[in-house]
Fold Fibronectin type III-like domain-containing protein.
Amino acid sequence: MAKAILLLVLAFLAVCTARDVPLLSMLNHHRSLLKNLATVTPLYISFEDRAKDLVDRMTLDEMVQQLGNKAIGVPRIGLPHYEWWSEAQHGVSIVGPGTFFDELIPGATSFPTAIHTTASFNKSLRKTIGRAGLTYWSPNINVVRDPRWGRIAETPGEDPFVVGTYASNYVRGLQDVEGAGETKDLDSRPLKVSACCKRYTAYDVDAWLGIDRYHYDARMVMLVVLCAPTTVLMAFLATCADPRLLKDTIRGEWDLHGYMLHQLPRLDLDCGAYCPDSLQNAVMQGEVAETEIDKIMFAPMNIFELAAEAASEGAVLHKNINETLPLDSAKFKNIAVIGPHANSTAAMVGNYAGVPCRYVTPLDGISSFGEVIYEMGCGEMTCRNDSLILPAMEAAKKADATLLLVGLDLSIEAESLDREDLLLPGYQTQLINQVAQVSRGPVILIIMSAEGRLPLTWYESSYVDMLPMTSMPLRPVDSFGYPGRTYKFYNGATVYPFGYGLSYTEFGNELASPAEAYLEIKLNKHEQCHDLNHTREKDGSEVVMVYSKPPDGVSGAHAKQVIGFERVFVAAGKSNKVRFSFNACKSLAIVDTTSYKVFPSGVHKITVGDGGLLFFVRVSFNH
């Protein structure tokens, strides 16, 4: 008899708390950075004057040798070598030569991947994780347009507002020195570490069907303006060297206080050796002015339980038939644990990870719950044959409950490895179906993937047949049969929509005071208070999401967009007030087909949650 399958989706994660190991990268090779500078210039002068003095003392050859990620230093003036490249996408990473582990510090806490943490929709959680090396090339703030992209796990999802909120909190957590207060002079502010936001101008294709980088322009203004990162990493394309993007936009309009980094040449700092190897010759040939080198050199010179909580909050519950979850240990004495992810270790931490102090696999955790019958079901993640399905079926017949752990790993989806379809690999789907047919008890399906309430739309598998990854439009293109991208423009069938997720308990929503039939505003801020009522006997957390919908008939407008969200804990049987404040110019504007932001007058709809609460805002330009 076929069994109903309960679906719980988890992103890559490793719950590894470093109780006895400091959450620090190995920084001994950085500690001499300013040690010998007093022999060249007095230490009591300002950072700005000291930086200028050092640059003035350096030869052209010495300067260009500092413009790769491996800055070799200038011993004659007391400037030591420095490695700019360290990574911290979700904890201190072993990727990048600026960070390393040894016997003294063998590992560090590995937090869940960015897409998983974003699924918690907890603003403060990301900032707390960031408070954990001196220059970290994190976070990745690319907006996901296509579900096949290999780097989804690194990103905060498909909504620009959610991405900006997530990344702003992470950068503040990395950079801010607690107790230092606010400073108007961003060039002289104290920094704990230097965060790097990647990638300016953005991209979201990695060798799809052998095709190299394709890119589109995505907005980074929210992050640069609100939290002032010290570094911005550019995308893999030549247009990043456009003076209008470099000078007019990010340094001028957005007022970047820091330096720009590229994995291709022609910016402040090169991730590689192209600039150190070639730039001096470019100056000699008159292609680059030496004064530009002076400017570039000046900018860089001036500048354990939490992991478990993040993993827990980022898990997304999709189905819970008959309220089977959470499992009652009194009813389920033995559990079948089946699937290629059942005993995963390295696959749990995703890419750009460090060295976890220890791994707790799903099998380890479930074994503490009761008696376990373990079967792999697949020989590897790609599940190339069905030879191990029969033993898995036999295990499911004997168990009171069956946990199926399937999904992806970095052999299927990664940097420089995009997916060609949206299906589970190999025979994994067959494994699920055949085990579900014979299971004696309920089946809990756990999908470990880069996609985690959901920061991404789950499209049906036929979606990828409608458009190639190399198509740039976000909006539908009827003449080509393109259906549009992301929840903002796609209105076709989905497996699960953006923002979807269930709870073990239930919540009711209502406005704290009745909304007027039409709320008249004049481009100013408006506050709306919302009551969140808990109607069940269990404590719980709910994510309250607020969307705006533009007036009907606006050509090229999005269907809706996120303008606010909050994760709220509510005790059983209690009620909490959630207050949202919206700026009309920011929350109700749209980007038209010519890429200009416009503010349509007329009646806008504001919806809370899945649309159960709705009120209207009439925008007037009369003052």
